[in-house]
Amino acid sequence: MQAALAGFIDDGLLDKHIRRGQRVYAERHRLLTETLSGPLAGDLTALTTNAGLHIATLLRKELSEDKVMQAAAEHGIGMMGLQHFFHTSPPQQGLLLGFGAVRTTDLPAALQALGGILAAKPK
User: Fold this and answer.
1) Which of 87, 97, 100, 112 could pair with 53 as two cysteines, CB 3.0-4.6 Å apart?
2) Are 99 and 28 in contact (CB under 8 A)?
3) pLDDT at 123
4) Strand pairing partners for 45?
5) Nearest to residue 63, comparing CAs of 49, 44, 90, 46?
């Protein structure tokens, strides 16, 4: 296995793989941040991020994190909530929106569905 990995690196295939991944994830990040700055801006506030394959967001106060995640799951959209990660009191409600495992072509529809869920105001 080590020889195969060394060949993969020596042939420049690792560099090619990394460059392709950077382009793919940059496009997904762009799609997500544009939607968070546009159609979803009234319900979600993106927290500053400089790395990773997710963006943490805070929900508008009148929305329930649990209800939004439940409704999203019913539409086939999986995400994590933020309230369990806060060590301050009271914890803030929000969503962790990952884009690493979502195909770029599927992301716009998923974000549109999330927008519909948020517009329904699950409390």
Assistant:
1) 100
2) yes
3) 66
4) 58
5) 44
CATH entry 2.115.10.20 includes domain 2-119 = no
Q: Return d(Cα 33, Cα 90) in angstroms, integer.
A: 27
Q: What are phi and psi of 97, to 5 degrees?
A: -100, 105
pLDDT in tens, 44-100: 999 987 789 999 999 998 899 999 999 999 999 999 999 988 888 888 999 999 999
Mean pLDDT of the chain: 93
Question: Which amino acid is residue 5, in one-letter code?
Answer: L
DSSP H or E stretch at residue 80: strand 80-81
Supply the DSSP symbol for 83. Answer: G
Q: What is the pLDDT of residue 88?
A: 80
As a whole number, mean pLDDT of residues 101-120 equals 95
